[in-house]
Amino acid sequence: MRIVTVAQAVELDQKAMQDHGIFGIDLMGAAGKAIAEEVKKMAAEIHDPRIAIVCGKGNNGGDGFAAAACLDQFSVQVFSVVDQDDIKGDSAHFHKVCIQKKVTIHYGINTPDVFKCDLVIDALIGTGCQGELRDEIAKWTTWMNKLSCFVLTVDCPTGIDGNRGIAAQNSVRAEKTVTMGYPKLGLYIKQGQEYAGEIEAVDIGFPDIIDELSGFRWSTFAAPNISDMFSKLDTDTYKHRQGKLLLIAGSKGMTGAAVLSTFGALRSGAGLTITCAPESIEEIYEKTIIEGMTIGCPDDGNGFLIPASYKIIEEKFEWCDAIVIGPGLGNNAQTIKLVEQIIFNAKKPLIIDADGLRAFHGNQNLFKKINVPFIITPHEGEFCQLMGINRDTYVNSFPDIIEEFMADFPGVLVLKNAPTITFQNNDAIVNLTGNPGMATAGMGDVLAGILGTFSAQGMDVFQAAQAGVYLHGSTADGKIEEKGQRGLIASDLLEELPKVMREFD
């Protein structure tokens, strides 16, 4: 499903009106009808339903007035937070229609002391929220949240940033969001997911011009696509045909990262794995990675990989079908030098995770030296380090900062966020699986192994990233039904992963 940023939604409006001769008043009227139809569905089982609509100053408020005009057969009360004389543009037309139809309208910033209704429609601000709400608006959002009734919001819950999904204090908590044309990005990321409730995109007559909009082609990932990405297992297949994966992972104190990434690979179907171990701690790898192979690499007894390890690792370049590098490698300067050697000389698709990204901190141009398809998997903090920015800059500038990064980035970016988003060139795929219980150590290691397997099996790296992220999140969703979100750990996913993948065989 296609989604849009706030800027793209504005551009869509403008193009529809300026280039295709569609009047704003017609779009607003269609929006009002669509909202009213959703309300009628919900009201069908309620005897004499009482409906409240809270309208703001802009077009979102106009949508609310347009909906009220279509619901005049019900007991409807409209609360306009602006005075009658301040209602302008297309909103003024539908406000006038409401008056003609004798819809009850209250004006002003003060909320009613006592009020009961069965459904309230939030048409205060929509996608225009950034930062904290003004006191006069927060007063109304608090009032709506305290009503013991169904909350439906227009386009975007008031208080939710339409791009970033960040919730202001006292944001509206909706059971359902009716969004015009295409859902807005902020409904699916950060707190937006929680506050939006069920999301219903409605057709209000926009022309089919979404591919003409500036910026990324934003989409959500659809599970049925996974089956098309996987090759059917032949009866006479064997381990060498199921993907041979080389993993460069782990160090003293972080051997678990190597174990989890290796088993993430094996549980997602890798035929063979070799995990490179610092020689002084190879015994740990040998004892824990029993279904995979290990090779010891010189480490001068320090427990981390060093440039002297390169020759042994290089010998496996031809053997493998893909390489995972980074989980738990640590931040030693010698290890970073080794990572650079491997990345710039590897002949197979790369998954660069965690500590493998340290070589690129503040120097994105190094990515252009990679001569094979590759995926990077930073979380927000690691992405900020790559860009050389602080987290506040990242948060305040999302998604513009991502567009800046991707402008000349030659690989696939898997941005581990809430939710995870996969980028390649001009495409941005928002994954809708996963849960807060995944905010624990080792989850990224498992994901790296999954991505490595899919790449080793010949899947295009962009497809591998999409499928891997979806299955990773879906597996975690399945486990919380058994264990709950609190206390979920990365190894819980390993047993569940093959069961989830079975659905797509």
What's a concise summary of this model?
The protein folds into two domains: 213 residues, 3-Layer(aba) Sandwich (Rossmann fold); 273 residues, UDP-N-acetylmuramoyl-L-alanine:D-glutamate ligase, CATH 3.40.1190.20. The protein contains 17 helices and 18 strands.
Residues in helices, as a percent range? 25-40%
The main sheet orders its strands as 1-9-18-17-16-15-14-13-10-11-12
Let me know the largest β-sheet. 11 strands, mixed
Please name the CATH architecture of the largest domain.
3-Layer(aba) Sandwich
Structural class: alpha/beta
Distance between the termini: 23 Å
Shape: elongated
Average pLDDT level: 95
Please tally the β strands and state the result. 18
Strand content: 15-25%
The CATH topology of the largest domain corresponds to: UDP-N-acetylmuramoyl-L-alanine:D-glutamate ligase
Please give the CATH class of the largest domain.
Alpha Beta
Rg of Cα set: 26 Å
